[in-house]
Amino acid sequence: MTGGQVRERVLAALEADVELGRGGTEWDAFGERVDRHLPELERLFAALYGSREDWVEHLAALVVECARSWQERPAELKELDARREAEPDWFQAGRTLGGVCYVDRYAENLAGLRDRIPYFRELVLTYLHLMPLFLAPEPNSDGGYAVSSYRDVNPKLGTMDELRELAAELRANGISLVVDFIFNHTSNEHEWARKAASGEPAFEDYYWIFPDRTMPDAYEQTVREIFPDDHPGTFVQQPDGRWVWCTFHTFQWDLNYSNPAVFRAMAGEMLFLANQGIEILRMDAVAFIWKQLGTACESLPEAHDLLRGFNAVCRLAAPSLLFKSEAIVHPDEVVQYIDPAECQISYNPLEMALGWEALATRDTRLLSQALERRHNLPDGTSWVNYVRSHDDIGWTFADEDAAEFGINGFDHRRFLNAFYVNRFPGSFARGVAFQDNPRTGDCRISGTTASLCGLEGGSPEAVRRVLLLHSIAMSTGGIPLIYLGDEVGQLNDYGYAQEPGHEADSRWVHRPHCPAERYEHRGDPGTPEGAIFAGLANMLAVRAQTPELAGNRLIGFHTNNRHVLGYQRAGEDRTVVVLANFADDAQPVTAATLSGFAGDAVDLLTGRAVALGDGLALAPHEFVWLAARPAGPDAAAAS
Q1: 225 annotated active-site
Q2: DSSP single-letter state for residue 202
């Protein structure tokens, strides 16, 4: 079937649908978007499903569903669509700041969260990511990542009406609402899974279900175990003897995207959330969404086609919706998901992990290498830079990158694990092992920023370490993201082990309840809480007033001192040079190293003049954001 014939079938389906109204400029706008985006959606659908005789019928039905969703989209969200289409790089502004939290642990419920909006304005948040809040099995929900309904909020937190009202109030205060879209799998209690379990053929095809071990054994030849402590292999046997694909936990059933009905169903859930006022979806576990026998079933080309297909759906029915990728994979694979047509923004796991690596080793070479090689992104995209998240810290650097410095990746990860769980002499960190294997030394790290930086253990340098790490997230380019509570130095919560469903998951140690008493001290710079809050507030204010720090572009800068990280953020007539000392003692950056810049610079964070011609001595964990201009020809010749 030719492209013209496919288009005719799609347009005929739109015309024939009795539920769709006609007329008006809004429908003209929808028709224009169909003209722009249908060819790409058709191409992707053909690539994914063209071997099926019914693929065009599924495509036509999908476009009709997009039209219905557009028809239902509230007027204020259509206005938002128009603004964002006119300013597509809105999220790259230097004032963009993200915060992330669990609703129940930070504010008890959605009503409590609305009460925090004045504080969010004080913190100048423009982006609020709420961790999974949809209906999920209790008590074992994998922190909400086992979704039983995408259209129902966990009743302990509130209702979908309250979420929609919260989104509207946040939007009125300049804050975009972000939620997780868990689209690799559903809970085994989801309506689709229940119907599949009962033997309804249409819904059995929503999942990877096999009658015996023949196909599971074949897939498991090449697919790795993710949580072997939860279940060996990739498949879980059901009471009726059948086997279901469960990449993560036994109660999370992987969706079968080789079935176009699944794509349509999940597109419908996605557009429903967009119409509630969600502005950004965190696309969970993007690397795992396509399965193919004989492969690792991770980061396959079809995974990218699926993301592009969902994006094309958004451009039709919710043009302002953005995707954020979550791909904790090899650094070369992470960037493959970052594209205006896939995920416009992405977590930056390598920068996060190497910030902690540099803090432990006092050596910035791996972090500097990563910033030079792996930081810059395509136009129209952005990193989300974070010091730590709700998840554990894994050491995601590439072994081949480490080998350039004579570092053995396996041994180095063992050292970092020992350091951050306080098993290494002289460690300041108070982390907790996640999925610890004492025999191999393998684990990942749990802990709040302050506890990992030594505040829990009383280290006098702890506050400076906290600010140092956040300074990198705020100045490298992208959207800085704060795990709410870290801005006042919250500590580990070891009571997690007494909470039902949490006792076997050490990540809850760094998901404490809102530290109300620490927030009360945020105005007192003589306290650790106040010192951290004031330091972050100053960085945020400077960043918002410094156009060179907007966007994502970064240029490396070699400090000729492995303890001092350096990079440049270039502007039209000046450059902001960031220097950060990760050592426990003062470190020099020589005048010769700085000779490419004019002698007089200004530290934007303090307002003080800095004479670069004399070189710099940075105090332990000190960082500076220097506004500098290129040296004149005489200085350049001398250097």
Answers
A1: no
A2: H
State yes or no: is 284 an active-site residue: yes
Mind listing the pLDDT tens digit for each residue in 175-234? 999 999 999 999 999 999 999 999 999 999 999 999 999 999 999 999 998 888 788 899
Backbone φ, ψ for residue 586 (5° rounding): -65, 145
In sequence order, what are the residues at sequence separation of 6 or more whose Cβ sits closer than 8 angstroms to the Cβ of residue 158? Answer: 103, 109, 110, 111
Using a 10 angstrom Cβ sphere, with 0-12 exposed, 13-18 middle and 19 or more buried, the burial of residue 301 is exposed
Given 65, 279, 326, 342, which residue is catalytic?
326
**pLDDT, tens digit (0-9, with 9 covering 90-100), for 587-614:** 999 999 999 999 999 999 999 999 999 9
The residue with tokens 């399965």 is 291
Beta-strand pair 600-603/564-570: unpaired
Instruction: List the catalytic residue out of 81, 204, 284, 493.
Output: 284
Whether the CB-CB separation of 576 and 549 falls below 8 Å is answered with yes
Strands (E), 479-621: 479-483, 555-556, 564-570, 575-581, 587-589, 600-603, 609-611, 616-618
SS3 per-residue string spanning 244-303: EECCCCCCEEEECCCCHHHHHHHHHHHHHHHHCCCCEEEECCHHHCCCCCCCCCCCCHHH
DSSP code of residue 461? T
